[in-house]
Amino acid sequence: MRKMRVTLLCLFVAAAYTASAVPLNSDFSEDREYPRFIEFPDGDGVMHTVDLEAEPDYELLDEISRNPANNVYLLYTRRNPTSSQTLVMNDIASIYNSFYNPHVPTVVIAHGWLSNQESDLNPTIRDALLHKEDVNVIILDWKKLASSLSYNTAVKGVPAVGRGLGQFLNFVHYVTGAPLNSMHLVGFSLGAHLVGNAGRELGGRVARVTALDPAGPLWNYNSNRVNPEDAIYVEAIHTDGGYTIGGLGIGSDVANADFYVNGGISQPGCLTNICNHNSAWRYFAATVTYNHIVGKGCSSSWQITWDNCKGEELHMGNNDLKKYGSGRFRANTSRRYPY
C-alpha cells in the first residue's frame, strides 16, 4: 500500500510539472493582452520601458510621412562586400554609378526599433547572402524614425517608412529594369511590419517578404501589420511569441507560411526574451548558408506546443525566390550555430 502511495505521488508531481511547463492557453492568436508598461529592447539588447498608452510624436510622424527620402539605402555586392554605396531616391546617377546589378536578385534588410545600419543583424544576414550567391544587398537604415524613444511613435510611423521603401524599389525597377519578382524583403521585429508595408505599396508583386519575429505590442489587431498579401510569398519566423506578457513577438499567424521555431515561445540556450527575439535573424542567416532547418506542417496549436506535427515538410528561411508554402509549421533547432 505504501509503495502504491509513493507511485501515485510521483505520478501526480510529474503531471503537475508537465502542466506548469506547457502554457494552458495553446492558441496562437491575437487574443494576448499587454499591460500598459512593457520592456522592449533596442538594437544592442538594452531594455527600455515602454508606455503603450503614451502620446505619439505627431510632429515627427508628419515629417516622416511627407519625406520618405529620410530612409538611407546602403548597397553591398560581391564587388563591395563590406563598404557600402549609398543609393538615393530619385537620383538616377546614384544607381548608375553604383555596383547595382539588375540581373541578379535584390535583398533588402530592415532593422527594428532603436536600431540602425550598425546593428548586428545587418552584417550577419548580409554576409550570409553574399557568400551564398551573387546578389544586391540593400540595408535600409530608417533610424530617423527608429531612433525615437517613443515606441508608439515608431509603430505609427512604420507604414509610412514602408511605403517609402516601396516607392524607392519602384524607382530602382523603373531606372534599371530590375524585376520586382527578383526582390526579397527581410525585416526584423518592427522591421517585419515595415517590409510588409513596402510589399503592399508594390501591389504584392515582390517575390518574397520574410518577417523575422514580427513585433507584437500594438500590432495584434493592427491592419498595417505584415500579411499574406504583401508579396507572392510571405513567410514568418516566430521565436518569442510567448503567452506571457514578456513575449516580444506577435505569436500569431501573419503569413502564407508561419514557422513556430521550437514551439515559437523560447529558444534553446536562451534565458531572456531578447535572446529569443534575436534568434529569429540568427536562424534565418544560418538557413541562407545551409538551408537545413525543416518545419513540419501542424494542424493545431496543440501540435505546435507538444511537438507533434505530422504534416508536409517545408524548409524554413533560405534565399529561394521561387519558394512557396502555406500553413503553420514547427521547426526544431539545436542550441549552437548553425542550429
Automatic annotation (TrEMBL):
The Lipase domain, residue ranges: 70-289
Record-linked CDD domains: Pancreat_lipase_like
GO terms for MF: lipase activity; serine hydrolase activity
Localisation: Secreted
Keywords annotated in UniProt: Secreted, Signal
SUPFAM superfamilies according to UniProt: alpha/beta-Hydrolases (SSF53474)
BP-aspect Gene Ontology terms: lipid catabolic process
Signal peptide start-end: 1-21
Annotated GO CC locations: extracellular space
Main location: secreted
Highest taxon above the source species: Eukaryota
Lipid metabolism in keyword set: no
Family: Belongs to the AB hydrolase superfamily. Lipase family.
Record protein name field: Lipase domain-containing protein
